[in-house]
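Hey all, sorry for the wall of text incoming. These are the two entities for the joint prediction.
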Amino acid sequence: MALPDTVSVPRRGPSDARSAAWLMGPAYLWLIITVLLPLAAMFYFSFLSDVPIAGRNWYTTFSNYEAFFQQEFYRTLMWRSLRLGAEVALWCFVIGFPCAYVLAKTIKGRWREALFLLVIIPFWSNALIRIFSWTMVLRGNGILERFLAWLIPGFGSLDLMFTYPAVVIGLVHSYLPYMILTCYISLQTIDDSLVDAARSLGASRLTVLRKVILPLAMPGIVAGAVLIFVPVIGSFMEPRILGGREGTFLGTVIEDQFTAVFNWPLGAALSFLLLACVLIIFAVFQPILRRAS
Amino acid sequence: MITPSYRLLTVTGALMLGATFAHADTLRVLNWQGYGTDERWAIEQFEQATGHRVVHEYFNSEQEMLTKLRTNPGAYDVIVINAAYTQQAAEEGLIQPIDLADIPNAESLDAELAGHPHLSLDGEVYGAAWVWGVTSFAINTQAISEPPNSLQVLWDPQYAGRIGWRDDAVESVQFAALLTGQDINAPDDFDEIRERLYALKPQIRTFWGSENEWNQYMASGEFDMATYWSGSAARSGGHFGLPIEFVTPREGAIAWLDGLSMQTDAPHPEAAREFIDWMIAPDFYTYWDGEVGAPISANVEAVAALPDGAFNKALMEDLEQVERLPFMGPIEETMRRQMLEVWQETKTYFQE
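and here's what came out:
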């Protein structure tokens, strides 16, 4: 996805710099005001003993971060959240990549537009509505079970509702379009003659996929996986509704700190620990990520 | 010279103006959704009688309510506050003292509830006792024919995977404290409580968060029994016609009291007092309980006005039989955090 290093940069005079500042200024000002400032405030909150409002005593402390390392359950939940993110990203790849391949390489013209629309349309509906629709599908004697019972008479109960798989199903559905779109873009740029060349040199279809298509599509796959992994590890709405008793993750605990117990400092500290964890993961995988893209 | 009749006309005119315009305030009420004050008929009657408009805002937890009070000073006139939080709100300066003498219907409030220590701070009353009830559980009468009489049944393996539980740290700890005979507002043996809560793992089908959610889960047959509030049970059973029965366990139940308070610098204090008076009145209560289903009124005359056999009359008789009826009270901040920690630990244990 990165620009090639060889893009030549035209010489810029001072007037160019000024116009660049004028053009970029509003966007960066907007980002500073709407993203960086609140984030900085939250970062500050994470070092306080209590929410800094009138009538409350507060002082700066590391105790919110210490709590994470003292209480084992926070780490258990962190691990669960990371696992959920990885699993959802994996399933999105397994389901989304073939779909993107067919869209990019096999189908042409109006059909492609129509099929694209089918991928995008669920994206336009509210996430909450999508998740509640899933509750109707997954619940005991719901749409899915009735369909399976009709297909295979005597089919027992799946009992998917309020389980970990239910959370994965809901999240995969929510984030699948990211994977399809990013993979589609990188697959489309692959020159068909490369595939033809490989085939003419005797490569099997599987070898072509492994040696030609997958490496060239890697930037899209990585971008899709990152776009999915990061929001999923902090998700709280889908686990709450679909996961039931098995739907406790770090995201739901952070939400509890903000909404249920008014402990913003701890919630903020947990959020930044999650962010730190994501950054560490990306740093560790940096060589792979760079090579991939 | 002004003739007497002309003067009379002006005075009357001024009074009428006063009644219809000068005091026509827009009252902002903060409450749980669907909890009495926002009943359409009640608002219409109140608006007709007083000329004030009533606008509602809602919260989903007491902490959210407190957050709203903190972040929107001078925005609300009337707030429904659980008595366990009234002192905290008063200490933080979020709500103002109320003189019950200004509220005519307060005269017939149950003396014990009106003067409940949880509703006052430093000798001043900060909340007018409104309604009270208990937290216990309700059974699905289609799944269970013989109503149980003990809290223990929630832990009975017979109902594994069939229990609905409210995802609330304080309430969960209080149930365990009640069962193990501890002080529900400051339990001392957290190991015992943790053990009890851990034992719920095979039992719980899912967590519920709001009355609406509870009704949906019950209606779709997800629960055989679920923890619940008595006032909500009256609504779900009566108004929504769900096949449920509220259980008063012999060990007792968690009692709670809701008061009506006014925010500090409430924009329309006069109208707020009128609204509180309206809410305490027997007329409102009997209609609310009859048509929708309500908790028990703190107003003695209002309860007396209920027809015989009413849910709340029967409940009051049942509650006289139980071993303990501890009221939810203010909880120390450190205690609250400990309760939350135990509950989060429990929920993490549920994942394994």
